Amino acid sequence: MRPENLQPLFRSLHAIKGVGDKLAALLTRFFGAPDGQEAIVLDVLMHMPSGVVDRRRQVGIAEAYLNQIVTLRLHIDRHQPPPRGKPHIPHRVFAHDETGEISLVFFRAQGGWVEKALPVGEERYVSGKIDFFNGEKQITHPDYIVEPDRFASLPLVEPVYPLTNGLSSKALAKLVRQAVEAIPTLPEWIDTATLDQRKWPDFARAMHMVHLPDNPGEAELWAPARQRLAYDEYLAGQITLQLVRSTMIADRGIARQFTADITARVAAALPFSLTEGQKLALNDIYRDLASEDRMSRLLQGDVGSGKTVVALMAMAAMAESGAQSALMAPTELLAAQHFRTIAPLAEAAGLRCALLTGKMPAAERREILADLADGGIDIVMGTHALFQSGVAFHDLGLTVVDEQHRFGVHQRLALSDKGKHADLLVMTATPIPRTLVLTHFGDMAVSVLKEKPRGRQPIDTAVLSIGDYHRVIGRLEAKLAEGAQAYWVCPLVEESETLEVVSAEDRFAELRQVFGDQVAIIHGRMSSAAKQEVMERFKADGIKLLVATTVIEVGVDVPNATIMIIEHAERFGLAQLHQLRGRVGRGSQRSACLLLYKDPLSETAKARLDTIKSTEDGFEIAERDLELRGQGDILGTRQSGMPGYRLAVPDVHRHLLEFAHDDAKALMQRNPGLTGPDGEAARTLLYLFRKDLAIPLIRAG
Q1: CA 670, CA 679: separation in Å to the nearest integer?
Q2: CA 205 to chain CA centroid, nearest Å
Q3: CB of 584 closer than 8 Å to CB of 572
Q4: How far is CA 332 from CA 145, 315, 342, 385, in A?
Q5: How far is CA 122 from CA 77, 78, 95, 154, in A?
Q6: From residue 101, how far is each of 114, 135, 443, 617 by CA, in Å?
Q7: Do residues 339 and 311 touch, judged by C-beta distance below 8 A?
Q8: Are the C-beta atoms of 142 and 126 separated by less than 8 Å?
Q9: How, if at all, do strands 545-548 and 519-522 pair?
Q10: Residues 6+ apart with CB under 8 A from 145
């Protein structure tokens, strides 16, 4: 149960005076409250300012300069309303102080409110930005107008917040003040020594300094208050991941034993020897499988580093122990490709493999399901359909999840529930910066494959304007005539009314006029069978040029394809460009990647293309991607429910994540049941950062 003292922060915004149905609904949408739930006071508290306006400059008119924000004490002299019927002419108010004169300008001021706010003959404090008109100083639409006896109500240091249509800054500021005042007394989850060393305030004081600062420095991203809050957000996430990890590995009770017979036969069937990186990763995996703890491991490998072979060797080891393995891919296309790659090697070692998809004939599906249930299949491959309720395993020992870095921690838990003691291996070909590994996979051990298998050739990467299209076509004709195969990737399937981008269908039609039946098209809107048929023809060299969207981004393996042309490369992210380039260079021939861009290029797009051109190191590219995008959407966090941040800004606060990771780990080792005062404080933190889904994972003792 949520601690009673937190109730004021979990009240619906409806309960706040002045918030009606319309504003409450607007705030619920704006703050992204979970489906079926209203926005609460805590949502306002966690909505961080994007900047601060400093109104402390109180000078005479003579010392107020262009574009400065100033606060002036003015004597109101006269009003000059617009002539009747000419609303485009502003209402002007003339005023002075002892140093000079100024006018206050209001467009479309109706209802007499300007006259009421600025009565002739009286004094008012006015705050706003100085500009000039016809050589005279003026303030257009002042931000604040207050009577001298209400000067204390004027926010001299004012945070500026992201807003939405229909939500004014003044209405939000009022809500923020009430939210800050609602913060109850909370137990402290950071030890005193750390607070003293870093000179951090407590949580309530930190929120006060960020939302109601006495000076602009208090609310800066690198100031103690914001650093403390960023650390709190990281710590809540890391404790959650540690709880997931403790759940994954708890009560395993099966230490796998291996004979090495099947793995030796698989290794002998491979057309190449394992790299050192693959051997090290397998040692990690075998050690995990032999332990009584449940394996929860992330296998990171750059494009073409041989993750699939590592997965196959792990599944072969599991078969030696008498248990089954399931490999889940994100698409039927990739699942089928895994099956074609793995099945011959597995079957040469005496293993029985199957491919299970949602679109296979009912009789074939029933037969596979029966074999899975009675143990007749050692390795099954498929999409998420593998984990639907109708699929039963005889003894699922290992779940391998490929390219599902978009899976959140709770999906990872659900996947392994199919096998009572199933180990989990998550693979990704998207190299992930250490910061994001800690953020999203802090519950998992990590193995990294950096080297490519022997014989892989480097890829020559060039950047060209789309203006060179005809020259590119000429070069492509010559290469295809020599026997090469090529991909031509476009960002959209069909023409868009809003984007000036060449679609895959339009480009296919143009290329067909040049290359005839040698060219085909593949995209995500085609049926699985149609996509499969096109890929089979391309793999068999029946097609020379494949026009595609990013449906080929991951896993597609055609060793004879040596040319990758990416049109509108400026519209793709770094990780996508790296993945697409990785579709070539998979055989023994030298390969090329051509990035075609349309002018003008933004600075960010130029930096992306320069990065791809200068390096093939996926980990270096991932770090650069993080720099260019900031906290961005590198792992698809917005689409997947994985954690984005509200208080922490990774570009500024990245160093705090390491501290939070170590501190969460130490806390869970010291107090796995989160009992006693520090356990109560940690639980409070989880509730504050909406991580209470992790509370049921806390184990007694």
Answers
A1: 10
A2: 30
A3: no
A4: 64, 20, 15, 10
A5: 8, 11, 10, 18
A6: 19, 12, 65, 63
A7: no
A8: yes
A9: parallel
A10: 117, 118, 124, 125, 126
- Structure-token pair, residue 87: 């609303």
The 485-489 sheet, strands edge to edge:
459-465, 591-597, 561-567, 485-489, 545-548, 519-522
Burial zone of 378 (CB within 10 Å; 0-12 exposed, 13-18 middle, 19+ buried): buried
Nearest to residue 491, comparing CAs of 481, 503, 506? 503
The per-residue pLDDT for range 23-81, each reduced to its tens digit, is 988 998 888 776 678 899 999 999 999 889 999 999 999 999 999 999 999 999 999 99
Q: What is the DSSP letter of 419?
A: S
Q: Give the three-class secondary structure for 99.
A: coil
Strands 100-106 and 324-328 turn out to be unpaired
Written as six digits, the tokens of 590 are 């030298």
Structure tokens at 629: 């995008």
Phi-psi region of 541 (alpha: psi -120 to 50; beta: other; left: phi over 0): left
Pseudo-torsion of CA 576, 582, 583, 584, nearest 10°?
140
> By three-state DSSP, how is residue 574 classified?
helix
Q: How many CB atoms lie under 10 A from the CB of residue 586?
A: 22
CA-nearest of 345, 370, 346 to 356 is: 370
Whether residue 458 has a cis bond before it, omega within 30° of 0: no
pLDDT tens per residue across span 505-545: 999 999 999 999 999 999 878 887 888 889 889 988 899 99
Pairing of strands 100-106, 69-80: unpaired
Characterise 415 by phi-psi region: left (phi > 0), alpha (psi -120 to 50), beta (else): alpha
Token pair 């029985």 in the structure block, residue? 352
Question: For residue 650, which phi and psi values (nearest 5 degrees)?
Answer: -50, -35
C-alpha distances in Å from residue 28, one per residue of 16, 80, 304, 641: 14, 42, 45, 17
Torsion of CA 540, 544, 549, 552, to 10 degrees: 30
* Sign of the dihedral defined by the CA atoms of residues 451, 454, 459, 460, in that order: positive
* 409 compared with 485, residue with greater pLDDT: 485
Count CA atoms closer than 13 A to 474's CA, side-chain side: 4
Q: Which residue in 544, 485, 493, 538 sits closest to 515, CA to CA?
A: 544
Q: What is the mean pLDDT of residues 375-389?
A: 87
Pairing of strands 423-428, 396-402: parallel
Which residue(s) pair with 685 in the sheet?
none
Q: Residue range 284-306: average pLDDT?
A: 86
Q: Identify whether the C-beta of residue 408 lies closer than 8 Å to the C-beta of residue 641.
A: yes
The backbone torsions φ and ψ at residue 694, rounded to the nearest 5 degrees and listed phi first, read -85, -15
Helix (H) or strand (E) segment spanning residue 316: helix 307-320
Helical packing angle, 261-269 and 332-348, nearest 10°: 110
First-residue to last-residue Cα distance in the chain = 18
d(CA 538, CA 426): 29
Beta strand spans in 265-339 (E): 296-301, 324-328
- Dihedral, CA of residue 535, residue 539, residue 542 and residue 546, to nearest 10: 50
Strand pairing category for 353-356 and 379-382? parallel
Work out the average pLDDT over 272-297: 90
- The residues, ordered by sequence, that sit 6+ positions from 271 with a Cβ below 8 Å of its Cβ are none
Contact, 74 vs 130, CB < 8 A? no
User: How far lies 270's CA from each of 266, 312, 320, 327, 560, in Å?
Assistant: 6, 11, 18, 19, 19
Q: Is the distance from CB of 97 to CB of 73 less than 8 angstroms?
A: yes
CA distance 105 to 144: 13
Token pair, residue 158, equals 């004012």
Enclosing H/E stretch for 649:
none
Q: Residue 203: exposed, middle, or buried by beta-carbon count in 10 A (0-12, 13-18, 19+)? A: buried
Give the contacts of 20 (CB within 8 A, at least 6 positions apart): none
